[in-house]
Description:
Arc Repressor Mutant, subunit A, 11-stranded mixed beta sheet, 9 helices, 11 strands, globular, 305 residues, Jelly Rolls
Amino acid sequence: MPSHAEHHPAVSADPGAVPRTLSRGGRVQACVAAMTPHLYVPTAERPVRAKMRKLRADTRVMPHSHAWAQVAISATGVIRLSTERGTYIVPPWRALWIPPGVEHAVTVVEDADMRTLYFHQPADCCGPGVAPADEAPWRTCRVLEVSELLRALVREMPCVPDDAPPLPPEALQRERLLSALILEEMRRASAVPLGVDLPRDKRLRQLCEAVLADPTRHETLADWACDTGASPRTVARLFRQDLGRTFTQWRQQVILARAVALAAGRMPIKQIAAELGYNSPSAFSAMVHRAVGMPPARFLGLQHD
């Protein structure tokens, strides 16, 4: 996924924009601008900055980008973060790393207490203070597991904007210590395959958006292809060319992401399996284990280490 590192505005969304609403799928969706990111700019002296925002379900944070790296964490609730080439589900026990310059929009799946970390990135560097040889994975968006320690550290970070009275020296020193621990936990965090790639082809994009909205509406590629006006053979070829995988492989990633969102609402595995069209919980659990190589309960956040 491209990082668009050459595009480095402080923020592309107008922080003073007035929220508005639009109709999407028969529902009213509130659209808001990014929350004054220019007041939380990380620096070499303050390498990690934190802010928080409570967002209602169906809120959409307008597309924007930063010159610094970002981690989005939902303390409660579920958010969906979308870029030009992918979409990611972020439940409370996961975090999403966003490299500098990547334009992204946030959709709130269910009421969320969203925490955001901004990371200072020295010139030509990318990652939470990793060695140059280890930067490649950090130059793309990636979903990470959040340890109990990292979650606690994020809660303790001050969320004071730059237009407020400055933090006293002892508070700044505590922030620096917390930041060092956050960077260490970020470097140790395991990546989770929760991203869903999106295509450039307009016809394929339309189909993919439909699958994301309701992945169980059709069972076969032929049925999905009918909605695009293209033949199943053409659609299958486009998937291989644009996304490097088959439709079945891609749809499985959508199913996994949807399962995570359902699990975040404390839905049991048996009900999740039924919601996603599986005849039995064991069949669904076997698919999850094959796809991600970890027990379904751990992947779905139903148990924590």
